[in-house]
Amino acid sequence: MAKQSIFGRIQTLVRANVNALLDQAEDPQKMLDQLVRDYSNSIADAESAIAETIGNLRLLERDHQEDVQAAAEWGNKALAASRKGDELRAGGNVAEADKFDNLAKIALQRQITAEGEAKASAPTIAAQTEVVDKLKDGLNGMKTKLEQLKAKRNELTARAKVAEAQNKVHDAVKSIDVLDPTSELGRFEDKIRREEAIAAGKQELAASSIDAQFNALEDVGELTEVEARLAALKVGGPQRAAIDAPSPDQV
Length: 251
Prior knowledge:
This protein is mostly helical. It folds into two domains: 6-179, Orthogonal Bundle (Helix Hairpins), CATH 1.10.287; 181-231. The protein is 91% helix and 0% strand.
């Protein structure tokens, strides 16, 4: 009963604390640290309760041992009184012998009483000893769980820090993603592409103007030849115009 009462109370307390921490949804590291503190406090409460139980058991054992010793002492006193009575009776002193015999009877009665008390307390001591042993085992189990909890706390805290760092790196990389058309770099690249297109257009336009100029020069050459032949025709006739007409290379 003592074992169930102690550990039942502790389990209820720990469960309530865990549920409260989870409901609050605080920082994971703070929550785990608080859980370790609460569990440590529960172990301290268990140690106090178990120590009290052990103390009561030791008192029972001491009383039992005293009863056993008292029974032995009263038995020795009864034997001594009986021997003294026998000695006096053998000497003819019947009155004194009866007196010591009566003392022996009183001692025997007290011996029986002490033996009865020792016998009555024995089952209680055995039961309490079993309870104390189980409580000690339970306490050791709690201490082992506490070490596991601390190790798990350290592991989860480390994992939380790694996850936080990974999220920060991911967010940083995402913010400078050059493939993102909505990013600053994307808009800057679009601007450069437009400038390059304008420059290419100007070059194409300039090339077209030069071609037009060369075509105009060819047209001027043809007109010059016509004028020359016309002048020759007026002076010497058709044959003269053909002879005097400059060749295209001379124009």
